[in-house]
Hints:
Elements: E1 2-10, E2 19-26, H1 32-42, E3 47-52, E4 57-62, E5 67-68, H2 72-84, E6 92-97, E7 100-107, E8 110-116, E9 121-122, H3 127-133, E10 139-143, E11 146-150, H4 154-159, H5 164-167, E12 174-180, E13 186-192, E14 197-200, H6 207-218, E15 222-227, E16 233-239, E17 243-248, E18 250-259
Parallel strand pairs: 2-3, 4-6, 11-12, 13-15
Antiparallel strand pairs: 1-2, 1-18, 3-4, 4-5, 6-7, 7-8, 8-17, 9-10, 10-11, 12-13, 13-14, 15-16, 16-17
Amino acid sequence: MKITIYQVDAFTDSVFGGNPAAVCPLNNWPDDKILQNIAAENNLSETAFFVKTESNYQIRWFTPEVEVNLCGHATLASAYIIFNHLGFREDTIQFDSKSGLLNVFRKDDMLTLDFPTTDLSPAIIKGDFCEAIGKVPIGLFQGNNKLLAIYETEQDIKDINPDFEKLSKLDYMGVIVTAPGNDSDFISRFFAPKVGINEDPVTGSAHTLLIPFWADRLNKKELHAFQLSKRKGELFCEYKGDRVWISGHAITYLTGEIEI
């Protein structure tokens, strides 16, 4: 079996930035074990697989350890490959996923994810969380199996140095930390050691929580954001009520072939 593989840096306009995702177009779905093994071998935060159907594309996402229900940067990367390498001529791609129908549309060199908003509810700040994250937040919320921890300053976010072993034992898939940005509306970082990702470079799905929170806090619909990982990513966001738009650039890093 031979499978074409691309690696795309998402939410950046230059290689070695943003979040790298592997993208594998398929003619049909192989056994799930093969998909998981490919993702583990790639050892990136996400590998996306998609199959063309009569009406749209079916898409799935795998970390090195598990399949996940939603991934933003790997969806952006997949759309970039379809638009730029596979001859897709229209301006909107529709993906059928475990999180429902997801649209990605392009305007000039910018791609926009149209994702469902994640509802937030308050969470109790407990000692085990504070020990794991290493800094007490001023607020804590939960949604879609993630925690959203609020801090006062960008420097607070830069200074966070989690205990990943303790973080992996929390009853949540991942933890988002966020604060107002010095050069943007807000900044964030995302940690998910429970699914094999200590720190994700740029996380589109985390912004389904971040955008509604900051839209309400700042009383504005259009937001500019950075994710302050080592690689750093830039996101242009818009709050649409039950949907959020997450826009960014992408660039191809490599094209190759998997032999199984």
